[in-house]
Amino acid sequence: MGGLLYKDFVSIDRINKIRLTWVIATYSILFLILRIVFPGTKEFQDSMIMIEDGSVINLFDIFFIMAYVPFIILPMSFMSVSKLMSNDEKNKIGNYLNSMPFDKNTYVASKYVFIGISAYLIMSFGYILGIGCIAFCKEGLLQDIAVMVNSFLVSIISIVLFLAGIELPLYIGVGKEKAMRAMVVFWTTIAFIVIGFLMFGDLSTVSDWDITVFMDFVEEHKSGVLIFQSLEPVIILGLYFVSYLISCRLYRRKER
Amino acid sequence: MDKKLETKRLWIYLILSFGLTWIIFFSFIGTGFKWDGSNPYMESFIGLGMLMPFVAHILSRLITKEGLPMTGKDSLMLGISFKDRKWKYYLFALLIPWVYFEIMCLMALVLVPDAFDSNVIMELGYGNEIAFASPILTMVSCTILSFAALGEEGGWRGYMMPKLIKLLGIPKAIITGGIIWGLWHAPLTVVGHNFGTDYPGFPFAGIIIMCIQCTLMGVMLTYITIKTESIWPAAIMHAVNNGNPSILKFFLNEEVFEKRFPGPFVSYGLLMIPMLVIDIIIIVRAIRRSKGVYYYG
């Protein structure tokens, strides 16, 4: 299993890994220099702006909080099911595995474990960045937004894991080509629904949407939000396990 | 085993671990900060500090050229295996903090029955359902977000304890490790994170209590690390412990309790009683079963 996991890690595009490391390192250094070493000095007075509620915030805070979201999305390329499976097909891993003393389920399990580990690492990485943002943010609206983004990180990663749980049986059961086609159909349908809404739907519901209403809703329904947040990953993990069982069955049938 | 070399490696780790963490803690304290209740800003600083022992572990291995093996003997102990009934130690890690926190609250209510208050949960802004679901919710959320505790355990149980056990043997290693771990918390104890600042003997009494508590927890954490050859169950237990899983805590009015028993000593004493009982059970079982033979990593 360890060997299969290492194979998957190595098979991810090396250039992407280097690029990602550089982006993260640059971001961290910028963060340290701009936000911690020179907080509120004369040189940085110009970076302070007043917002609607009268409070003064630092523009660098906005920069880092806005940059926070793509920084979580970037490493999600590690969780790309299509890349993992395409690499296996390209490298004809099936032939190699048949010559090795592996249980048939081990190969399937390695894919699920790899994506699971990636999810945990990305979530932890996101949280570390998040707590960095919060720790060096002034109290107020920006810190509230950073806390909110951070608190929904588990839910976001759970959804990504859920999608992986749908994609994996498809790729394992029907192969790369058909699975990719099915995913294109799925996402195109979603895109059409969104475009349809933008063309014919009531757009005022979006334009009038106020983030404070959402934040108030979360505050009002604290108990429900807490239970949902806590149990959602458990339910998703349960479904992920069911997806693994289905994938094992499909893989065995395919190999027969 | 080269004792001199192992001692040198341990010192490198301790200097890095204390140095990196205390830079964060003191930069925090330097701004005139005092702990006045949990909020995202304070928790974030502590979260960053908690990651440093693992960072120190990795740096120590790079400096001492021990390599970075993920699993096996003298490794980072990051492997997870449920074979040979190891799953029961993961279950232990999840459930045992709930057991000792519940017993602590129960003893507090027995000592001060007037402290029973069904409105505590309402004052926190949650419904009653949260009180009964809270241990499960704490276990789930703390396991998922165990990276900060993994940061600590990756250093203490992942590097310091194996070295201490090699040098001193298990009993002395656990006591020494507990004291080191307790002292590592000292900057936070001084600003009132663990016990506040208003108690007799502040801050030294607080630091001593922290060392005792770390030693008692260290027995359980080291035990499950040895049994599973992994730092994950220790990280899970540490994370769940930090989440204080308990139903009865939502029915315990701390103000009423503290009127009768001011200061942190009685409440922490009550927490230490079940911990001590669990430790004794673990030690007796370990001695009986292993017949004095221990293996770490």
Explain briefly what this protein structure is:
Chain A has 256 residues and is mainly α. Helix content of chain A is 79%, strand content 2%. Chain A has one domain.
Descriptive overview:
The complex is a heterodimer of chains A (256) and B (297). With 256 residues, chain A is an all-alpha fold. Chain A has one domain (2-255). Chain A contains twelve helices and two strands. Chain A has helices at 2-11, 14-37, 59-73, 81-90, 93-98, 104-135, 141-151, 153-174, 176-200, 204-207, 211-220, 222-255, and strands at 48-50, 56-58. Chain A has a two-stranded antiparallel ribbon. In chain A, helix 3 packs antiparallel against helix 6 and helix 6 (104-135) runs antiparallel to helix 12 (222-255). Chain B has 297 residues and is an all-alpha fold. In chain B, helix 3 runs parallel beside helix 10. The model of chain B has no long low-confidence stretch (mean pLDDT 90). Classes of the chains: A mainly alpha (256), B mainly alpha (297). Chain A binds chain B through residues 2, 120, 123-124, 127-128, 130-132, 134-135, 137, 139, 143, 146-147, 154, 222-223, 226-227, 229-231, 233-234, and chain B through 40-41, 43-45, 47-48, 51, 70-71, 125-127, 129-130, 133, 136-137, 140-141, 144-145, 147-148, 150.
Q: Which tags fit this structure?
A:
heterodimer; A: 256 residues; mainly alpha; two-stranded antiparallel ribbon; 79% helix; B: 297 residues; 12 helices; 0% strand; globular
Total strands of chain A: the figure is: 2
Gyration radius from CA atoms of chain B, angstroms: 19 Å
| Number of spatially distinct domains of chain B | 1
| Percent helix of chain B | over 70%
Summarize the main sheet of chain B.
none
Globular, elongated, flat, extended or rod-shaped: what is the shape of chain A?
Answer: globular
The sequence of SSEs of chain A as H and E is: HHEEHHHHHHHHHH
Strand order of the largest sheet of chain A: 1-2
Task: Estimate the mean pLDDT confidence of chain A.
Answer: 78
